[in-house]
């Protein structure tokens, strides 16, 4: 092999080998089933906090293997963050879980989604109901200044089977509440508006139970000192499994909230947590 002069070498390493390629800048493994990673952001990519994009890797057949992933970073961040499950026999995540800093992933720069402020009518209190990796869009939205400008109170509920699965969200909330730069951006006085309500269902923790059960029993409201949940004050975004989404929708509708969309803002919006 002949040695390349430095300029040529530099040019070669900077040429993306994949269409829509982005470079991995950080990878963090949370459990044997969960990891998060950050990638470079295409300069032209504009999105609204809470939206998702298609990302993936080149498949063995030479075709891109893509799945929908909520962008977990806020719209102002210079990089993009994603939070993913690891499925050992999953076509994409069995491979994606092995990415390392410097690797490339494919990212189609067409953000879409309903978990956006535009899809909700103005309100006083904003609820983020998440299970599992469904916390990803809310990881974006709790770092979005508009969230704090538009609401007096923001409640992030996150339900997982085990305590370790809460760690990504717990660390993020801690970071939002303690990081000086984020405090400046979101307004230090605003950070007290954010309430975090983690629960587990299959391992002992300070608060146990499905969020649906805690809503139905009223325990959630008692814990937070809320007595006036309803369509005049409350707005909600929901992201979890199909079961969770259906069950929460029923509860919200019973309380008088109606489902909204980008073209028809109302009191709540729902999106499936995407599984790779
Ligand atoms: P549970 O342990 O009782 O099934 P998963 O890991 O299967 O995606 O689930 C994530 C969390 O969501 C678990 O704590 C699970 O509780 C909870 N969950 C699953 N389905 C529902 C549902 N229909 N309503 C409320 N919580 C749910």
In the sheet with the most strands, the strands line up as 4-3-6-1-2-5
Q: What is the overall number of helices?
A: 9
Structure ligands: adenosine-2'-5'-diphosphate
Q: Indicate the mean pLDDT.
A: 93
End-to-end separation in angstroms reads: 40 Å
Please tell me what the overall shape is. globular
**E-strand count:** 11
Q: How many domains make up the coordinates?
A: 2
- What top-tier CATH class of the largest domain fits best? Alpha Beta
Tell me the CATH superfamily of the largest domain: Nucleotide-binding domain of ferredoxin-NADP reductase (FNR) module
Given as residue ranges, the uncertain stretches (5+ residues, pLDDT < 50) are 1-15
Largest sheet: 6 strands, antiparallel
Order of helical and strand elements: HEEEEEHEEHHEHHEHHEHE
Measured by DSSP, the beta-strand proportion falls in 25-35%
Gyration radius, in Å: 20 Å
Class per helix and strand makeup: alpha/beta
For this structure, the CATH topology of the largest domain is Rossmann fold
Fraction of residues in helix: 25-40%
Q: Which architecture of the largest domain does the CATH hierarchy give at level 2?
A: 3-Layer(aba) Sandwich
